[in-house]
Amino acid sequence: MSNYTERLTIICNVDLKTRRRTLTWTVKNNRPPTALFQVDEDFIVVGTEGGKMEIWSIELKKIVKYMDTHSDCKVGISSIKELNNPSYLIRGERKEADPTTRYVITSAFDKNEFKIWKLVNMHEKFKRPEFTFHIKISTSLSGISAVLQSTPDQIVCVDNEKTLKFYNFIDKVAQQEERIFEEQITKFQDSILPFF
Length: 196
What we know:
Layout: E1 2-3, E2 8-15, E3 20-28, E4 33-38, E5 43-48, E6 52-57, E7 62-68, E8 77-83, H1 88-91, E9 101-108, E10 113-120, E11 130-138, E12 146-151, E13 154-158, E14 164-168, H2 172-192
Antiparallel strand pairs: 1-2, 2-3, 4-5, 5-6, 6-7, 8-9, 9-10, 10-11, 12-13, 13-14
């Protein structure tokens, strides 16, 4: 849970059967929180006003990294979501996906873009999650209030007026190869047609 006005993120355990909550820890954020993402049982990411992300260690109860994810953003991060089994078009490589690398997408309420980040759960040197910028997609929206993945190669964005936009990642090389193949088949069919 988060409290925008008080700049707090509240971590609690919830027993689903009894609906009882046990307050575990309250985080005092540097800026008002606008989005939350749990990396694993040891780290959480708090998206804040101003397009920043704070990576918090639950064990150490402190910020281990502060990132400027959406520069010039005033309102705040609207979404931090993990992509499930993204296609090679999103990953940018035709080989099998690296099981140690996850992909996370972020957006901001007042920015017309979404960004995809590579996430390594535990950086060898720093012993914390490491986000590396992967790709930025500019949209025709004025701001993005929510973003999600609908298929391995499609991202859906919703703007602040509840307009949906679908963004498909297309393999233009494969499209070109398919078009050339279809042209060759048509040419072949036309060349043998007089014999029948």
